[in-house]
Amino acid sequence: MEFELSSDQKLFLATARDFLEKDYPLDRIRRTGEETTGFDRDWWARAAELGWTALLVPEELGGGSISGNGVRDLALLAEELGTGLAPGALLATNAVLAGLVAAHGTGPDHTAEIEALVAGESIASWAVYEPEGQWDPLAPALTASPLDGGGFRLEGAKDRVEAAGQADLLLVTAATPDGTAQFLVPAGADGVTVEPQRSLDLARAFGAVRFDGVRVAESALVGRPGDDRAVERQLQVALVVQCAEVCGGLVRMFDATLRWAFDRYAFGRPIASYQALKHRFADKRTWIEACQATTSAAAAAVQEESADAARLVSVAKAFVGDRSLAVLQDCVQIHGGIGVTWEHDLHLFLRRATADHSLYGTPDEHRRRVAGLAGL
Amino acid sequence: MTDTTESIESFRARARAWLADNMPRLADAARLSGDDPAHWERARELQRKLHAGGFAGICFPEEYGGLGLPYAYQQAFSEEAEGYEMPIVLNIPSFSICCATLLDVGSEEQKREHIGAAIRGEEVLCQFLSEPSGGSDLAGLITRAERDGENWVINGAKIWSTFAYGADYGLCLARTDPEKPKHDGLTMFLMPTRAPGLTMNRIRMSDGTDEFCEEFFDNVVLGPEHVVGRVNDGWTVASRQLYHERTAVGGGSIYTSGYGQPPTRSRPDIVDLVRRAGRAADPDVRRTVGEAIVMSTVHEQLVERVSAGIEGGHLPPAAASVPRLFHAEETEAHADALVRAAGASAAVASAGNAFEDVGLHYLCRQAGSLGGGSSEMARNLISERLLGMPREQAADRGIPFNQIKRGTR
């Protein structure tokens, strides 16, 4: 996605690739079948040792990036892991860390939780969607009612929570009398129940979470009620990770489809020689370059916390979200029947890309956000 | 002021101060259409101002009248020049295609004379390439140049020459040896637009504008000094023009100064349009506006990425067709979005109303997909040169031009 990488960045990415290929080759993901249960916790702890959870966290909180630009490093890592369709909590944990770091110093202290997440000792996920609801992070129906003796009582439900069955901590958006707030709730707290859901993406498990009169202390608050900056930062990081990992998968499947077109013959000539297909390859090549351009511009804006970051992540999500599916479905078409079989890799990437298209705001929801940010 | 040790920031600060003192504000500028002759006088006047101030030809070499500075200085200048009246109409084709090509393949004398004159605002160049008998098959052209002693006598016709009526010279590709295969018998000439025997007409487009021209050559006589590159090596010169054209149309030329398009028919502002139409609350319309902004933003990001990729050697020069193709998609998507956003007002509007432009703009929706080589040619280039896919069968490859079959239309 980026043209110039430092030797440290190259080493970081090569290590990540080797680590993933050794333990989670595509065949292992295919074998998990439709009953996705998640990933191996020890494996995640070792991934954390490689720095996958440290990139957005300042050094004084136990983190550290590779290049000094943690968001861009995270985008590069996500692209690499997207190429290999990694399981794990890269998006979930880093989105939560982005919020915790953004809110650091503005509310109760979460240094210990941040350090445990960076070390891979604990896993966190953002509980933001609600049953039957669409993307609307600042209008939760789940309530957090202040208790007389201090603390809050959470009542409501969340769903489409990534790695819900494996998360130790849930970052829960909730309505309070003072506006939308976020709480860091232990998944083992009394009144929290997790039900697995069916996930299109075989490498990622999701779950529905009920909060029945869950009591949390004031110290579970992240930032202050009504301060939406952390939510926006979490969204921006989630979108950068989504777009970057999809870029990685797109390049891999495009290259495989191009090779197929050279190797496959019809009527005595390679199908790569037919203009009807050549022109579609040219379009796909163009769209992939554009996906990389807009993702890398979004990552740079989020890195710099520029005023335009909110707009640029939505531009990237709207574009990559739809174009990735157009590219992958055309790769299926060019493969023919083999492209829709369980044994072929294409559906694994199509599953991931469809999930990334649909979650954290659909392309259309982000188009409307772009219109709003343009003053409409 | 061509001290190459000057920092970009210092250059930028100097440009900002100079622009404020010397260039007219765009808001005060007369709205001259690009097809109005007065627009051309104005552009030359503005270019002379830039030259007098030491801010003309920023990326052209010093020995040919430029400043010899890297692209980053030109970008800084263009950013500072936003909001000022600039000679935008000189960017394409004069500077970014014609002067860029002369710089690549022109004789020392041609470079000194013509690039310098263009930078000083004294000369404008255009292209005489396409012909009525052929669009995408440029090398199949039939305009002929025959020797007469040391001179050349040119007969034939050209079409789709952008802004030719505002130009002094046209880079004219003609057949000098019909016995050779089509690419091998061509020669490029630098032809004065007011040469005796040249007749120029303007072409009225479907939206009412007339920036394109057609030319007829009836025994136009040119001396040997008008040949650009070598005789019968005109395809090499044309290839440089096409490369510079793809780069410029895609938005990535280092030789353009100032942003924006000449105001032949300016693109209506979609956000403003939706507000005037009272449709800002309609979620479908908001989606449409968002999509238009997404497409133009991604186009800008793609141009920047591919320019940097080619400049840094990470992408081959053939990648210039990628933003070119996307540019067409973006202009089509934007034209569609405007019509959808305008609703019923796209069809009927009061005269002079912004809505009037929506429908007219839509009539030329395909312009971005046709100008500077069609999108189909861009797709051929990307698939064949960037992806290495097999080339299209050609029935005229290696055959003497005068034995190739030709159509009747």
From TrEMBL, chain A:
Keyword Oxidoreductase belongs to the record: yes
Superkingdom, taxonomy of origin: Bacteria
Family of the protein in this entry: Belongs to the acyl-CoA dehydrogenase family.
Protein name stated in the entry: Acyl-CoA dehydrogenase
Gene3D superfamilies named in the record: Acyl-CoA dehydrogenase/oxidase, N-terminal domain, Butyryl-CoA Dehydrogenase, subunit A, domain 2, Butyryl-CoA Dehydrogenase, subunit A, domain 3
Residues of the Acyl-CoA dehydrogenase/oxidase C-terminal domain: 232-371
Keyword set, alphabetical order: FAD, Flavoprotein, Oxidoreductase
Pfam families (UniProt xref): Acyl-CoA_dh_1 (PF00441), Acyl-CoA_dh_N (PF02771)
Record's keyword annotation contains Electron transport: no
Single GO MF annotation: flavin adenine dinucleotide binding
Domain Acyl-CoA dehydrogenase/oxidase N-terminal stretches: 7-106
Co-factor(s): FAD
UniProtKB/TrEMBL annotation, chain B:
InterPro entries linked: Acyl-CoA_Oxase/DH_mid-dom, Acyl-CoA_Oxase/DH_mid-dom_sf, AcylCo_DH-like_C, AcylCo_DH/oxidase_C, AcylCoA_DH/ox_N, AcylCoA_DH/ox_N_sf, AcylCoA_DH/oxidase_NM_dom_sf, Mycobact_Acyl-CoA_DH
One Pfam family here: Acyl-CoA_dh_N
Residue ranges occupied by any Acyl-CoA dehydrogenase/oxidase N-terminal domain in the UniProt entry: 5-122
Signal peptide (from-to): none
Annotated ranges, domain Acyl-CoA oxidase/dehydrogenase middle: 126-220
Record bears the keyword Mitochondrion: no
UniProt keyword terms in alphabetical order: FAD, Flavoprotein, Oxidoreductase
CC cofactor: FAD
Keyword Transcription: no
Cellular component, GO, one term: plasma membrane
Acyl-CoA dehydrogenase/oxidase C-terminal domain boundaries: 232-387
Molecular-function GO term, any one: oxidoreductase activity, acting on the CH-CH group of donors
Protein family according to the UniProt entry: Belongs to the acyl-CoA dehydrogenase family.
Protein's name in the database: Acyl-CoA dehydrogenase
